[in-house]
Amino acid sequence: MITKLSVVSILVRDQDEALKWYTEKLGFEKRDDNSATVPGYRWLTVAPKGQKELMIVLGKPRSEEAMQQVGKQPGPKGNPEATWVFETDDCRKTWEELKGKGVRVLGEPVERPYGVEVGFEDLYGNVFWMIEPWQAETGRAERKPVMAEA
Q: Rounded to the nearest 10 degrees, how much is the dihedral formed by the CA atoms of 50, 51, 52, 53?
């Protein structure tokens, strides 16, 4: 029986460059940096601070075909149905912080029935989304009024 998802990978051109971007721009922490486990491969992982359940491998492609996939993960640009979604406590504040750090954001945060969301790209053009969910029933942030409701 499968019990959990523990590791996902993103292909990167340069692992040190990617590590710097994910830790400095997104505030992630480095988890593993090991070249001894797999011969000829550097196992380099990051994750949002405090999240123990999942690690992101910043993987250097080992073939030219794989190198062509850099910047094309986790799904096609503009397709929010095929992507990774990061959760945030305050989407608008995080959006401002990311913009201030030079992260390319895809528009402004938008209120949806399930929360506030906005897309952004990493240093290679991979598209991700972040969401501040409205899940009052679970004790999470209450829905904030929109300007028109105020």
A: 170
Q: Which residue has the tokens 């969401």?
A: 131
CB 125 within 8 A of CB 71: yes
In this structure, what are the phi and psi dihedrals at residue 67, rounded to the nearest 5 degrees? -60, -30
The mean pLDDT of 76-88, rounded to a whole number, is 74
Full set of structural domains in the chain with CATH? 1-61 (3.10.180.10), 71-150 (3.10.180.10)
* pTM reported for the whole predicted model: 0.83
List pLDDT tens digits, range 119-140: 999 999 998 999 999 865 544 4
- State the Cα–Cα distance between residues 102 and 25, nearest whole angstrom: 8
